[in-house]
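Archive maintenance. Older records in this collection stored only the sequence; we are now back-filling the structure field for every entry so that each record is complete. The fields below show one back-filled record exactly as it appears after the update. Entries are processed alphabetically, and NADP-dependent oxidoreductase is next in the queue.

ARCHIVE ENTRY
Title: NADP-dependent oxidoreductase
Organism field: Mesonia profundi
Length field: 331
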Amino acid sequence: MNQEIILKSRPKGKPTNSDFEINKIDEPQLKEGEVLLETQYISVDPYLRGRMRDEKSYIEAFKLNEPLSSALVVKVLESKNDSFKEGDYLTGMLPWKKRQVSKAKGLRKIDEGEVPLSAYLGILGMTGLTAYFGLTHIGEPKKGETIVVSGAAGAVGSTVGQIAKIKGLKTIGIAGSEEKIEMIKNKFGYDVGINYKSTETMSKAIKEAAPNGVDVYYDNVGGEVSDGVLVNINQFARIINCGAISLYNDTEIPTGPRVEPLLIKNSAKMQGFIVSNYEDEFGEGIKQLATWLKEGKLKFEETIVEGFENTPQAFIDLFDGKNKGKMIVKI
Ligand SMILES: NC(=O)c1ccc[n+]([C@@H]2O[C@H](COP(=O)([O-])OP(=O)(O)OC[C@H]3O[C@@H](n4cnc5c(N)ncnc54)[C@H](OP(=O)(O)O)[C@@H]3O)[C@@H](O)[C@H]2O)c1
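Back-filled structure field:
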């Protein structure tokens, strides 16, 4: 049975399963120039929450009663398109459907080989590139410096810590459970791990972990965790605003300590970015990440949820930290 997942209502606060609906749909009919695709893996990502709001942003909002979309790995079941053949695996932005036809614009072929196909949604996909470009281009890491990474056990954060280590930095990771702290230290080489859920005063914990101060802060979560890091920045610190998941479900913009004086007195730079800013350099980024993977300098973790119908729940679970590394749904 073919199925799609649509946005039924715009979530108020944290999304719930009732904001989504799974519908039975007709089998797609292949036309000249198209490929017939079967979904293998779906990427669920925190940024999709922003697309569920009816707001102008860097990417179009999802429409009510229409399928959601994200990065997928698909298999070509049949092809009437010269670029791809039956049996090829492709990745790209596609709607959440089990089977669909596409003109294949924006899709690229990937190989099942040294890494699993799902890795093209994580370490060799958007989150790997986000870690790489955010850190290298905005963070400008230098050997001997100290970096703090929030969301350190997630897809982006686990990669940032390892790249920072390759570049010779002291790495401090912040995550939400003891199990995650063990993982970021043992698997991803973080020098220090801080469990923000059991830490009473973040600013104090950061000060203890980084007695020489923080040179680079790669922020995936924002909010109170960041408040604790920012009071510990050094002169000429670089702050990378990659994500602010702690604020994504807020219905009003929260207030907190003012950061302007901290930035001024430290001549610090704070910059947000969207990974697609670096689209022209994606090829180079993937090549570098693949090389490090091959050399064993990069590792990755995935949380794979089984079943198309569990896609909304997998997305919701990101906000409860149920994933270690990249959250992916296997169909
Ligand atoms: N700028 C860009 O182009 C770009 C691209 C990709 C991703 N991002 C952003 O980067 C961040 C990480 O993305 P990802 O795909 O790698 O997701 P992820 O880190 O793999 O998953 C989300 C994690 O966020 C943590 N979290 C959830 N609620 C939190 C809260 N209230 N306070 C603190 N931590 C919380 C959870 O870990 P704990 O158990 O540790 O709480 C959860 O596992 C997100 O904010 C995302 O929007 C930005």
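Update note: The chain has two domains: 3-121+302-330, 126-276. Residues 126-276 form a domain with the Rossmann fold fold (CATH 3.40.50.720).
Entry marked complete.
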